[in-house]
């Protein structure tokens, strides 16, 4: 039976996907602004962040309205809970893309540091994880979600590697300090985007299977 | 969400002592079939209803939940051509065994109906009714029992100054709590509630639900409700009935958050139909 509620759920899903697409764009553009030293593009990402924030508020408003009016249960309840957890995750990822762009603008005021070492790959991997997490959410694809979660360790390692490499630049020449520190921040921002993608994937597993797998809950609390 | 609290065993010698510890099955149902003439309305019902918990029965109209709840105190016996097969045991004793004292059974298993049905008597006499039938005549003792029952039913403060007024002068919600007090007066162990709040306004409904919460410390409660949110709010366990069968029986939180059966999910999300 088609319910009026299904229309509300569909609309909420569309909004979340539109927000997801906007966040993906922000990440992509932040990477481009970094690699191409494009200050104008970085500024564009920063100014676009307001739209993503507005989208978050709109989704929050609709979600709360839906809970109040429809009192969702079972898969509907899990969907609404997922939206409420995923939306701030996306907003945070967009903020991180904005942070990348702020550092890019600062970096562009100085000559480029010889190489950005592991950062471009780290950035691409984090972007790929966010995209895959959103795909898993749209398709309710648990195996994709689980495979994204396993990639998080590799991103963590790359972040660590890029930090160590930047450390050598720092030690080598004091003139590198501000740029190397900014790049270290950027590495951390991408690493946290990947964390966000992991959190989204954990909610996909919850949505589909009703199991909370974050922290150690996967084993102890699910039957 | 259900919070399970480990209940310490009551000290020996108190009225709260039960043969079965909290959480153990008070009512055990095995392969229970029920027929009205040749029409079978319950099919192989098998479930354990725990002591000192609230068990909700949900399901669409005609699914058999009311027939089932009425089987627990053999209320269906009065229907001609009604026939039961299988067993229902309370504290390990089969209530359908030959020689069962049905009157004594119904004293142990009280019932509250959808529509409050006070007798056209005073508030006091309504609550005292079962006690008097049971042979209690001592006025002081009657008064104490009536007061205790009205307190348990969260009605005492509202009626203590007008116990001699007609019960029919009470509001719908008060009448329903009076019926609960009347059921509690004979000190039952199990309370069956067939849509006890469906005819009440939201405030009266909340009072009944709060009361159910309080009563479960001392009674085993089985409630039939069409209000799914009510089942979710008041019960510890929920059984979903469909076409005379139990489709799923589980912790209430599982039924409402992550049911195992597609049919349960469709029903609790309102997709059913």
- The ordered H/E elements of chain B are EEEHEEHEHHHHEHEHEEHH
Determine the CATH superfamily of chain A. Answer: Phosphate transport system protein phou homolog 2, domain 2
Topology-level CATH name of chain A? Methane Monooxygenase Hydroxylase, Chain G, domain 1
Strand sequence of the main sheet of chain B, in spatial order? 6-7-8-3-9-10
Mean pLDDT of chain B: 89
The fraction of residues assigned to DSSP E strands of chain A is under 5%
Write down the secondary-structure element order of chain A: HHHHHHH
Describe this structure in words.
The complex is a heterodimer of chains A (about 220) and B (about 270). Chain A is mostly helical and about 220 residues long. Chain A is about 85% helix and about 0% strand. Chain A has seven helices and no strands. In chain A, helix 1 (about 5-35) packs antiparallel against helix 2. In chain B, helix 3 (about 125-135) crosses helix 4 (about 140-150). Chain B is globular. Chain B has helices spanning about 65-70, 100-110, 125-135, 140-150, 155-160, 170-185, 200-215, 230-235, 250-255, 260-270, and strands spanning about 25-35, 40-50, 55-60, 80-90, 95, 110, 190-195, 220-225, 235-240, 245-250. Chain B is built from ten helices and ten strands. In chain B, the strands form two sheets. Chain B has a six-stranded mixed beta sheet with strand order 6-7-8-3-9-10, with helices on both faces. In chain B, strands 2-1-4-5 form a four-stranded antiparallel beta sheet, with helices on one face. Helix content of chain B is about 35%, strand content about 25%. The interface between A and B is medium-sized, with 12 and 15 residues.
SSE blueprint:
The complex is a heterodimer of chains A (223) and B (273).
Chain A: H1 4-35, H2 39-70, H3 74-107, H4 119-139, H5 142-172, H6 177-209, H7 217-220
Helix pairs in contact in A: 1-2, 1-3, 1-4, 2-3, 3-6, 4-5, 4-6, 5-6
Chain B: E1 25-36, E2 39-50, E3 54-58, H1 65-71, E4 82-90, E5 93-94, H2 102-108, E6 109-112, H3 123-133, H4 139-152, H5 156-159, H6 172-185, E7 190-194, H7 202-215, E8 220-224, H8 228-234, E9 237-242, E10 245-251, H9 252-257, H10 262-268
Parallel strand pairs in B: 3-8, 3-9, 6-7, 7-8
Antiparallel strand pairs in B: 1-2, 1-4, 4-5, 9-10
